[in-house]
Structure formats: structure tokens, C-alpha cells
UniProtKB/TrEMBL annotation:
This protein's name: DUF4447 domain-containing protein
InterPro entries: DUF4447 (IPR027909), Lambda_DNA-bd_dom_sf (IPR010982), YdiL_sf (IPR027910)
Transmembrane segments: none
Pfam families, per database record: DUF4447
Domain of life: Bacteria
Organism of provenance: Shewanella japonica
Length: 166
């Protein structure tokens, strides 16, 4: 990243906020300290190139997830009538880690996954005119639903449970 392309203090803070993360989470992602992140956002120090790259890669991952998901929804509704959709989101890091580990390498915090879901919701509403609800996974209710339905744990089971919560 050339110096002219480096993120300034305001851009660093806006990026953090747009990702839905706090200073401590940015510090963890960039392997630095909360004080260092605060200094970047105050314009007292430049964020290292590697830290900027990491955060921009996460932003790109979320944007690709939004594009891929909305493209899939658009294709689905070319053959089916539009309907409301429900996406599972995760209220805690522990639940996210247990039920959605496949995303941990690219979106390590539940806040990042939930940010992607929020952006998908907004894109679906604005561009596709499809209503999407974000449904926090309630573990006990979900387990009960699976037991009553004879279903095993899967992403599809979570999606079906979420649809029953609308």
C-alpha cells in the first residue's frame, strides 16, 4: 500500500465502525493494542500497512458475501414468487463459534458475520425489494425445534428454524 493510499484517521475509525467492531476487537485482529488503535483513529500515529490490509480484506470479504448472497436470492426469485426471508444471526461469540465455525477464518467475530447479514438485509430491501428479517439464534428453542422435527444440526436446519420465527 503506497503512502498516498494509506487510510487516514477518519477512514480508520469509519472502517472500524462500519465493521461493527470496538477498539479492542480491531486491536485483536491487527495484533496490536487498543491504545495503538486509538492513536490511529486520533491521527497520532499511522496504522501499519499490514493492519490496514487486514481490515480492508475483511471489508472485501463482507462485500463479496453480500454480493454473492443477493445474487443467489435474485436468481431464486426469478423462478419463485418473492417472499420474506429469515437469516440467522448470532447473539454471542460462543454461539457463533459453536454453530457457524466455517466463517471463523474469514469473519472471526460474530459482529462481523452479523454486519454482513445486516448489509445483505439492506441490499435485499433496496435492490430486490425482498424483506429479510435477522433472527438471533436462540439455542434452546432451536434444539427443541430440531428434536420435534427430527432434524440434525446443519445450516439448513438453522435457516428452517429461523423461518418459523417470522
Amino acid at each position: 500500500m503506497a503512502k498516498s493510499n494509506a487510510l487516514n484517521a477518519i477512514e480508520m475509525k469509519c472502517l472500524r465502525l462500519s465493521l461493527g467492531l470496538n477498539v479492542e476487537q480491531i486491536a485483536e485482529l491487527t495484533k496490536t493494542t487498543a491504545d495503538a488503535v486509538t492513536a490511529w483513529e486520533a491521527g497520532e500515529a499511522d496504522a501499519p500497512e499490514v493492519a490496514q490490509k487486514k481490515l480492508l480484506e475483511i471489508e472485501d470479504t463482507i462485500e463479496m458475501q453480500v454480493l454473492n448472497t443477493t445474487d443467489g436470492i435474485e436468481a431464486l426469485f426469478k423462478t419463485e414468487p418473492k417472499r420474506r426471508l429469515a437469516f440467522v444471526v448470532y447473539p454471542t461469540q460462543a454461539i457463533y463459534t459453536q454453530y457457524n465455525p466455517e466463517f471463523l477464518s474469514s469473519l472471526p467475530f460474530t459482529e462481523l458475520y452479523n454486519t454482513a447479514a445486516w448489509r445483505i438485509k439492506k441490499e435485499c430491501q433496496i435492490v430486490l425489494e425482498v424483506e429479510v428479517s435477522l433472527v438471533p439464534l436462540e439455542v434452546e428453542a432451536y434444539k427443541s425445534y430440531r428434536t420435534d422435527s427430527g432434524m440434525s444440526e446443519s445450516r439448513e436446519s438453522r435457516a428452517k428454524w429461523a423461518a418459523t420465527q417470522l
